[in-house]
Specification:
Number of strands: 2
Radius of gyration: 17 Å
Number of helices: 5
Strand order of the largest sheet: 1-2
Strand content: under 5%
Low-confidence stretches: none
Number of domains: 1
Shape: globular
């Protein structure tokens, strides 16, 4: 049974997971989408991945931002999980489990899925920018359901 004393640490834990996972995907997504940090940019991503790169690059970048800010967190976590499953199936599975060069396996992708699952299951927690958005409720009222 959850008590109010339990809620604070849970919200802090969800925030820390969102921030870590969000930063990882926002930065990596910016490489794939914009060519930042020495990345290939969208054209390089599409030339490597094919047309699916048009979904993967913005999915990683905007999914990361969604997690950082706590807006559409469950959708962002779900999209990241789907992208990581695709990376495992398309790229990493044939290399085995361990993520050691030169054969990069799927252990890192699996860890990222493990980080995204609590957000998908529990939502973003209390510390999110989705809660104070004014269009979610009548003036002076708390929103009925935040955009999680």
């Amino acid at each position: 049974m959850e008590t109010s004393a339990d809620r604070g640490p849970v919200d802090i834990a969800l925030l820390s997971i969102r921030l870590v996972l969000g930063v990882i995907f926002a930065i990596h997504g910016s490489q794939l989408l914009f060519g930042a940090f020495g990345g290939p940019g969208l054209q390089g991503t599409v030339s490597f991945m094919g047309p699916i790169g048009y979904l993967v690059a913005p999915g990683q970048f905007f999914g990361g931002l969604g997690l950082i800010f706590g807006i559409l967190s469950r959708f962002s976590a779900a999209s990241i999980i789907v992208i990581m499953i695709g990376a495992i199936v398309q790229v990493h599975w044939k290399n085995g489990f361990f993520n050691t060069p030169p054969n990069l396996g799927f252990e890192y992708n699996l860890a990222l899925i493990g980080l995204a699952l609590p957000i998908l299951i529990a939502g973003p927690g209390r510390f999110t920018l989705a809660r104070p958005l004014p269009f979610l409720g009548a003036p002076g009222e708390a929103p009925a359901t935040p955009i999680e």
